[in-house]
Design goal:
By secondary structure, the protein is mainly alpha-helical. Among the domains are: 39-77, no CATH class; 79-151, no CATH class. It has 6 helices and 2 strands. It has a two-stranded antiparallel ribbon with strand order 1-2. A hairpin with a 4-residue loop joins strand 1 and strand 2. Helix 2 (79-92) runs antiparallel to helix 3 (96-103). It is elongated. The mean pLDDT is 77.
């Protein structure tokens, strides 16, 4: 008898969960699944710069809507980095004046050299000759020079004062 009871209990244990879950499926559920349409996607391109000695950096972006996607990538040149590398190369080849002239194309370096009393070379001239050359030709001074902007402003103010008195 105990075997019959054991079989009966085992049958109840196995059937009871399926009977209780079957009660949940009395209502009808309807859904539509679309399997032939993938969601739209735009992937930003990978812009790789393999050499660490290159003065470039990379940027990429992508945007996606339900209708249209766009992705693009660019490289950006760091001109200050290039200028320093060129100057360093010129200096290592013994071209010290050319190296300084390369750096002097930056208005910040130009102003620093001027304030230090060592003006940037001007058409091969150095020292006082270079200073005279820059003062006689302020139109070739690197754009953004604060020193020559102030000098120009002072000169214009002096001319206005002279015209006022005349």
């Amino acid at each position: 008898m105990s075997k019959v009871k054991a079989i009966f209990v085992m049958t109840l244990i196995l059937l009871l969960p399926s009977i209780s879950y079957a009660a949940d499926t009395n209502s009808t559920v309807s859904s539509t699944v679309v399997t032939d349409k993938a969601p739209p996607t735009a992937s930003a391109p990978s812009v790789v710069i393999n050499n660490s000695d290159v003065c470039k950096s990379a940027a990429s972006a992508a945007i996606q809507t339900q209708i249209l996607g766009f992705a693009s990538g660019i490289t950006i040149t760091d001109e200050n980095c290039e200028r320093m590398k060129l100057s360093r190369s010129l200096y290592l080849m013994g071209m010290k004046v050319a190296a300084v002239s390369t750096l002097c194309q930056d208005a910040r370096v130009f102003d620093a050299m001027w304030m230090a009393g060592t003006p940037c070379p001007y058409l091969g001239a150095i020292g006082d000759d270079a200073k005279s050359g820059w003062e006689e030709n302020p139109d070739v001074v690197p754009s953004g020079s604060l020193i020559f902007a102030k000098k120009k402003e002072l000169t214009e103010n002096q001319n206005k004062e002279e015209n006022t008195y005349n």
